[in-house]
Amino acid sequence: MELATADYAILVGFFAVMLAVGFYFSTRMRDLQDYFSGGRRVPWWLSGISLYMSSFSTFLFVAYSALAYQYGWVAVTACWTAAPAMLISAYFFAPRWRRATSTSPLEYIEERYGSALRQWLAWLGVPMTVIDDGLKLFAIGTLISSGLGIEKLTVAGFEMEGLNASILMSGVIMLAYTFMGGLWAVLITDCVQFVVMIVAVIALIPLALARVGGIDSFLAGLPEGFFHLTSPKYNTVYLTAFLVIMVFSYCTRWSFVQRYYSVGSDREARKVGYLVTVLAIVGPPLLFFPAMAATIFLPGVENPNEVYMLVCKSLLPVGMIGMMIAAMFSATLSMLSSDYNAVAAVLTNDVYRPLIAPRA
User: Fold this and answer.
1) How far apart are CA 297 and CA 284, in angstroms?
2) Cβ atoms < 10 Å from Cβ of 282
3) Rounded distance between C-alpha atoms, residue 4 and residue 229, angstroms
4) In the predicted model, what is the mean pLDDT of residues 41-66?
5) What is the Cα 247 distance to its own chain's centre?
6) Which pTM was predicted?
7) pLDDT over 90, % of the chain
8) I want to staple 110 with a disulfide (CB 3.0 to 4.6 A). Which of 42, 118, 161, 236 is the partner?
9) How far apart are CA 270 and CA 272, in angstroms?
C-alpha cells in the first residue's frame, strides 16, 4: 500500500498523542492504587470504553473481516457472543470483583486460599499473558511493516529488518506511555484510540455503500444465505462452545477485572459491563460491513485476510488510509497496554512485594 505524506503525518501525530498522554499522567501517580487502579475514581463510561477497546485487536480487522467476506453475517454472530458473555460478567461478577480487590486481580486469593495458590496463579498467568501479547505485537509489527512498506530501518546505528524494527517501535511506544502514566494513561489513550477507530470505520461505510451502488444493489448482489446467523462450518455447536470460552474470558481476564475495580461503586462496575454489552452489539455490523460489500466490488480475493486493507486501498482518499491504519494500531495497542498494566500489577503486588520487598 502506497501512503502519502498526509498518511504518515497522521500516524506520527497519533503516536505523539499517545506519548504525550503518558507524560502528562506520569507526574500524577502518588501510590500503587493510583498507578494500578486509577485511585478507584475512574468514571464508569471511561472504564467501559477502555474495556471494550481492550477486548479485541488487529485480529478482528483481519480474521473476522475475512470471515465476513467468505461466509457473511456469521462473522457478526461470532462477535455477538461477546454481548451475553459481557452481560453475565457485568451482572454477576463486576461488583464482586470491585469488592474483592483494589490493586491486583490476585490479591484476594491469599486471604481466601493462602499464599501458595496466589503465587502459583501469578507465575502461571504472567508468562501466558506475555506470550499471548507477544503474538499480538508480532501481528501489529507485520501490519506496520507491510502497510508502510518498511523493508529495512536503521535504529540507533543498527540496521534491522522492517518487521523487527516495527515490532520494536510499537512495543517501545506502548510500554513508554503505559509505564509513565499507569492505568490513567491506558484509559485515556484507549478513549482516544476509540474515537480514532470509530471515525475511520464510519468513514469507510458510506464509501463502500456508494461503490456497490446503494443499499438495494448491495442486497441484490449478495449470495444466497449471506445473512444466515450460522454456516455449515460455523454452526450452532461451534458458536455455543465459543460463547462458553468468551464467558470465562470476560469474567476472569486480568485486564477486564481491572476495569471493574477501578470505579467507585458496585453500581458503576455493573454499568461498565452494560456499556461494553451495548458496544459489542452495535460494533460488529459497522466493522464488517465494508468486508461484506467487498464480496460485490472486490470478488475473488485470493487471500481473504487481506480484504480489509484492500478495501481501504480501494476506497479511502489520501490521509484516511493513515487514519485506518491508526485505527488498527489502536485496537491492538489498547489490548496490549491493558494487559501489560495488569501484568505489572500482578508482578508488583503478588510477586515482588510478598517475596522480595514487603515494605516497598
Assistant:
1) 21
2) 11
3) 40
4) 88
5) 17
6) 0.87
7) 35
8) 118
9) 5
Report the run of H or E that residue 152 belongs to, with start and end: strand 152-155
Burial of 160 (0-12, 13-18, 19+ CB in 10 A): middle
In Å, how far are 30, 54, 191, 344 from 35, measured between CA atoms?
8, 18, 18, 10
Strand blocks (E) in 184-224: none
Distance CA 78, CA 222 (A): 20
Alpha helices in 89-161 (DSSP H): 94-100, 107-113, 115-147
Query: DSSP string of 307-358?
Result: HHHHHHHHH--TTHHHHHHHHHHHHHHHHHHHHHHHHHHHIIIIIIHHHT-T
In angstroms, the CA 235 to CA 246 distance is 16
Q: Which three cell numbers stand for residue 123?
A: 507465575
Provide the grid cell at 214.
446503494
Written as nine digits, the cell of 210 is 456508494
Domain at 13-348: CATH architecture: Up-down Bundle (1.20)
pLDDT digits (tens, 9 = 90+) for 58-113: 777 888 888 999 999 999 999 999 999 999 999 999 999 999 887 888 888 888 88
DSSP 231-270: -SSS-HHHHHHHHHHHHHHHHH-HHHHHHHHTSSSHHHHH
52-62 burial, b at 16+ Cβ within 10 Å, e below that, comes to bbbbbbbbbbb
For residue 73, count CB atoms less than 10 angstroms from its CB and return exposed for 0-12, middle for 13-18, buried for 19 or more. Answer: buried
Cα separation, 275 vs 277, whole angstroms:
5
Compute the CA torsion angle 175, 176, 177, 181 (nearest 10 deg): 100
Strand partners, 152: 161
What per-residue string of b and e applies to 299-317 under the rule 16 or more CB within 10 Å gives b?
eebeebebbbbbbbbebbe
